[in-house]
Amino acid sequence: MSGETHEAVHRHPAPTGFIRKYIFSLDHKVIGIQYIMLALVAVLVGMTMSVLMRMNLSWPGTNWPILGTLFPGGAPDGMMTPEFYLSLVTMHGTIMVFFVLTTAPQGGFGNYFLPIQIGAEDMAFPVLNMLSFWVTLVGFIVILSAIFFSGADSTVGPIGGWTGYAPLSALPNAGPGQGMGMNLWIISIAIFCVGSLLGALNFITTLLNMRTRGMSLMRMPLTCWAWFTTAVLALLSFPVLLGGGILLLLDRLAGTSFFIPGGLYLSGILSGTDERFPLHTGGSPILWQHLFWFFGHPEVYIAILPGMGATSHILSTFARKPVFGYRAMVFAIFAIGLLGFFVWGHHMFISGMSPYSAMTFSILTLSIGVPSAVKTFNWLGTLWGGRIRFTTAMLFAIGFVSLFVAGGITGLVLGQTSLDLPMHDTYFVTAHFHLVMGVASIFGMFAATYFWFPKMFGRLMNESLGKFHFWITFIGVYCIFVPMHTMGIVGMPRRFAQFTEYEYLKTLHPLVVFVSIAAIATVLAQIVFYFNLLWSIFKGKRAGENPWDATTLEWTTASPPPHDNFAGHLPVVYRGPYEFAVPGAANDFVMQTEPEVILQAVGSGREGTSGNGHDGHRH
Amino acid sequence: MGRALAVIIWILTLLSVSLFFIDKWWFPTAISSHAAALDRQFLITIIVVGLAFTAAQVGLGYMVWKYREDADRSRATYTHGSSKLEVIWTVVTAIIFIGLAVMGQSVWASLRFNDAPPGSYQVEVVAQQFQWNFHYPGTDRVFGRTDPNLIDDSGLNFIGLDEADPNAKDDAVHTVLAIPSGRPVELLLRSKDVIHNIWVPQLRFKQDLVPGMVIRVHFTANTPGKYELACAELCGQLHFQMKSYLLVLPDDELGALTALPQDQFQTRMTELLAKYKLPAQN
Fold first, then answer.
1. What ipTM does this complex have?
2. What are the boundaries of each domain within chain B?
3. The pTM is what?
4. pLDDT digits (tens, 9 = 90+) for A358-377
């Protein structure tokens, strides 16, 4: 790397004023924390909505006076209206996918740790970095405003699910929830796309151009590979959603017909015969689905890849053992990223798309299971022969592996065209994607939080509270999502405001109630996490530079790191990222910056210095 | 801690897997001719899924039990992996996963790669927000002309049927789907407004109805009875109430129904709905 040029360009003095330091900061670390705070707020909104939904599903007809007080329109007499419920579905999904699962793993932890882990002083474009956060925040404010501007419909947002299928989402006269709330929903997502694009450009440039001396690609921590691949996915997929969103907005506001076919008859009016329903003709509802899922499928990998990276990193650190099959892990990340662009049609088997396309997408979809399985094998391989330290971070990383398998494996069912006939749009799907893209990703982020908190704030989180949080959450999410598979097999459809209309669903009622109780308990356990987070910032045990005996660059600098990360001395890297248990070395970990392995005793042999990323993978 | 975690992982695995053995929380009894093959494919897949899930969780539990940091503080094994193992597990999973994907196409191909057999019983399905309309061609087996300009919900012409068309004379429109038992059925799926989805769990069949398109699908039901029919694609406020029934009738009973003029058709349908009972719960 041409160190001289980029240092001159990117070095900026530490700000002194409060506003430049903490609000409009150019420092990737502050921006990372801002993203994490945004996600921590967004996830509270999303979780609250999920509890409200569970209450409505499990105890239909119950009068909840508190609901009546809070939402006099949406829950008159304390009973939720179906449109209110469906707006909760939509907002929960949108907020969780965009403002939690895309924001924390990539914008948050990626922003904070990618530059430090590759030995850079900051992101390549600090101003762009600041802008990407603030744009994202505006997106969040817009989606929240949908809660308040949907009052006329007595909803808290649009009705469309997070997928917003046209023409329901394209027709303002298609009933409650299709008015201003839908406009704001589309605008929010479009803004989010812009923020993510700016961020993606920054990540890619930073990683390619700003690695410190000795940090070859194959010496990077797997976290960096994951963030890099995620950024590439975001760069290629978000523009498609942005384009789709703009077209959808034009259909709604400018009278175009990208997604609206001719001859529609809605609420007693034929399109074009009345000013309340202007003429539309020639659009394709399926086009929206193609555009949405061309983004939407890579999006699920955007959500989970950083969690995979963090898990690999943390498993190795606390198993005190090099990552098993580093090279295979890198290839698997790439394979997932690449194949992720060719499987979107598995969301559309029964959409009216050609059945031959469906077959092609189906086979490609099951192929993507292969690199996912390879990663799982390598995680088990990393634990094998280790000396596992059960920190809270490690518990969550192990939990990630367990949940990734539990959620991912049912893709084998859903990816098959035939089996999609009974399973499509049932709770089996809900269970599958919540476990794998929701809960597993969140476990990756919990692991990352407990692991990196001491670096970010100089203090350790409380381990006892952390472990309590882990046990409840781990058992809780199994109790919530495994029974949903069963509901799906019986045939319970998603996005139903009530199940009381159907006889064949009555047998499932005890499971529905069980899931709701588990969900409420799990949500309550998160209070412990929030408390631990706040308490530890001020009262946690002091961490020091390297509390975990870890090997990568972030552990060579102060906690928290200074403004330029390495106090003016960029580190030099001599070896691969996971040199634990090197035979003959004095410590059981050798940091990336150590030029020589200090031998414990004479005669241990020089192979101890392998694992430098080039010849260390044939043991 | 390692032992506790291992035990919890194993217990959760055991409980998760056993949930799939509870009969009353399984597919409802199937009534379509493709369902046997589909259910078999599902069973094979879920067994593979269950075995892989169990193996991975048991393995994970074993690792955290066996390799917890112990008192002697000896070092972990220093290894960066094994190319041989990588190749083996990549190839083995690829064969299993892609094999399943290919097997999974056969039912799909039988339903979707060919047209409905000649002589199939045809019904046109016109979905609209929160209501199903089933258009029966009558004894001439030709659908009367429909035109969006003639749609009049308040006048109860939900599908815009042109009464002036001679082919429409013997047509009937009803909110319940009646089909023959043991004979191929072809549905012509349309929507008036937004996307809907026709879903009968016992049929193991689901298909979107997309405005602007006519989607033709076919299947054969072979057990007479009454079954609940749902909309399975979010279509707006009262989506959860967009319910109807599928009546699978012996051929002669359906023939008699179809031959009736429109007003008697309605009455007879009401009688049939009362005559047949929903299947008992598993």
1. 0.96
2. 2-69+83-111, 116-275
3. 0.95
4. 999 999 999 999 999 999 99
